[in-house]
Every structure is written in structure tokens, then in C-alpha cells.
Amino acid sequence: MAGRLYTVEEVARLFGVSPVAVRKWIRSGRLRGFKNEVSVYVIPEEEVERFKNEEMGRVRVYTIDLEELGVSGKSRRSARK
């Protein structure tokens, strides 16, 4: 295997997520990584590139529950007046 090996923390920074998220991706098989000789996950550079290309085509949808945030339609309307 040629190329650089990334740590979980490095991959997390690259994708703007937490290291916990990266470990979940590895455990679920979404991202291929392996534990090195000191039982720390590492991810090959080729895999980081593959994952990046795959993620670029993925559409993300976020929903926000305004009530959960303490914002209701009435309070927003009255704030405008």
C-alpha cells in the first residue's frame, strides 16, 4: 500500500466532522480504515480521496424544528411589527 495514512482526527478536520463521526463511518463500512500496530485507526490516502469524491455527489437535507428551538410562527410575526 503506497501513499499517506491519515489519522481519524485528520480525516475529521478534512470533512468538518467530529472524530466520533469518522469512527462510526469506519465501523459501518462507509469509510475503509484499519487499526495499526498500536490499535489506532488509520485511513489510506486513496480511501480518503474515494470518500471525498463520493461525498461531493451526496445531497444533504437538514430539517430544523423551530418549536424545539423555542421559535414559533407567532413570535416571528410579532417580532416584525
Describe the structure.
This protein is mainly alpha-helical and 81 residues long. The chain has a single domain, classed as Orthogonal Bundle (Multidrug-efflux Transporter Regulator, Chain: A, Domain 2), CATH 1.10.1660.10. It has four helices and three strands; from the N terminus they run βααββαα. A three-stranded antiparallel β-sheet has the order 1-3-2. A hairpin with a 5-residue loop joins strand 2 (34-35) and strand 3. Helix 1 crosses helix 2 (19-28). The radius of gyration is 19 Å and the shape is elongated. The mean pLDDT is 85.
Write the layout of secondary structure elements.
Blueprint: E1 5-7, H1 8-15, H2 19-28, E2 34-35, E3 41-44, H3 45-56, H4 73-80
Helix pairs in contact: 1-2
Query: Which regions have little confidence, pLDDT < 50, spanning 5+ residues?
Result: none
CATH topology: Multidrug-efflux Transporter Regulator, Chain: A, Domain 2
Alpha-carbon Rg, integer = 19 Å
Q: In CATH's first tier, which class applies?
A: Mainly Alpha
Biggest sheet architecture: 3 strands, antiparallel
Principal-axis shape: elongated
User: What average pLDDT do the residues reach?
Assistant: 85
Give the beta-strand count.
3
Estimated share of beta-strand residues: 5-15%
Helix content: 40-55%
Distance between the termini: 64 Å
Query: What structural class do you assign from the helix and strand content?
Result: mainly alpha
| CATH architectural designation | Orthogonal Bundle
- Tally of distinct domains: 1
The spatial strand order of the largest sheet comes to: 1-3-2
N-to-C order of helices and strands: EHHEEHH
Q: Determine the number of helices (DSSP H or I, runs of at least 4 residues).
A: 4
